[in-house]
Write a structure and sequence with these properties.
CATH topology of chain A: Immunoglobulin-like
Number of strands of chain B: 9
Number of helices of chain B: 3
CATH architecture of chain A: Sandwich
Number of helices of chain A: 0
Order of helices and strands of chain A: EEEEEEEE
CATH superfamily of chain A: Immunoglobulins
Largest interface: A-B, 29 and 37 residues
Structural class of chain B: alpha+beta
Radius of gyration of chain A: 16 Å
Largest sheet of chain B: 6 strands, mixed
Distance between the termini of chain B: 65 Å
Oligomer: heterodimer
Strand content of chain B: 35-45%
CATH class of chain A: Mainly Beta
Helix content of chain B: 10-25%
Structural class of chain A: mainly beta
């Protein structure tokens, strides 16, 4: 898979609600389209997205072909401790792409 | 046993063949997608499991007129204090006329602080889009939006190949 882009505030105060945005480069091929020769283009999508804060799952999503190419998801979480926020995208082949960001909580 | 006259035999065979052919054409003419896709009501029921659904408390931001169905920004905001005993557990996005009813299911928790998610979706045609949230007490809230799409996504578009 390819490039992932995540946006997490570098610093936050304890208890602050922060917005997290995540995007990954992926065609999200629906499986409903036909190529030039009339043959159906096989489905290839990211079907699962998981976000963990210091190892604890804080947000996840089940995605279907109706999610636009280069899936973008934004959500919120409460800043609790300084640490790492990790992101995982899993596609139809079971291949996983990860990204991470660090946050300092004061 | 009486032997069939070759001419009759031939005619019968041909008629059978034509009938079979016509039946075949009819079967394949019924759109496969229309048969496999559940209705919006069925998709809502599959998510809620027959629990009562309230038509309030969900702020669903989606443009009423969309030029490009390939990437339609949506934002869902559910009224909830997001505490341990009163929060949003799941948010589903469902469509009325896309090849599949499901668009996404988001799993949240009290830690989210706010029940707010945003993404970009595909719309195959003008239709009703639904944002449905499951609360921690097992009840459901819903918001429906009518969207008119001028350039459809998913099916015929090959421009981004």
């Amino acid at each position: 898979m390819t490039r992932a882009l995540v946006n997490v505030p570098k610093t936050a105060t304890r208890g602050e609600i922060i917005e997290i945005r995540a995007m990954i480069a992926h065609p999200m091929e629906t499986g409903y389209r036909e190529g030039v020769n009339g043959a159906r283009i096989p489905r290839n999508i990211i079907k699962r997205f998981v976000c963990k804060y210091e190892g604890e799952e804080i947000f996840s999503a089940d995605l279907f072909p109706a999610i636009a190419a280069n899936p973008f998801i934004s959500f919120t979480t409460t800043a609790t401790v300084s640490g790492t926020i990790t992101f995982e995208w899993t596609d139809d082949q079971g291949e996983m792409q990860t990204a991470s960001a660090t946050i300092t909580v004061t | 046993m009486k032997r069939r006259d070759p001419a009759t035999f031939h005619r019968l065979n041909r008629r059978d063949l034509l009938l079979a052919g016509a039946a075949g054409v009819f079967v394949f003419a019924v759109p496969v997608r229309a048969l496999t896709r559940p209705s919006l009501a069925a998709a809502i029921l599959a998510f809620t499991g027959d629990a009562p659904v309230k038509e309030s408390g969900v702020h669903f931001e989606i443009a009423p007129l969309v030029e490009n169905g390939n990437a339609v920004p949506v934002k869902i905001d559910v009224d909830s204090p997001m505490t341990a005993d009163n929060h949003v557990r799941r948010i589903a996005l469902l469509t009325e006329k896309n090849p599949q009813a499901d668009v996404a299911i988001f799993h949240l928790g009290a830690r989210a602080g706010r029940a707010q998610v945003a993404t970009r979706i595909r719309l195959a045609t003008s239709q009703v889009v639904v944002a449905l949230a499951e609360l921690s007490d097992g009840s459901y809230v819903i918001s429906r939006a009518n969207v008119v799409v001028t350039i459809a996504a998913c099916i015929e578009d090959l421009s981004d190949e």
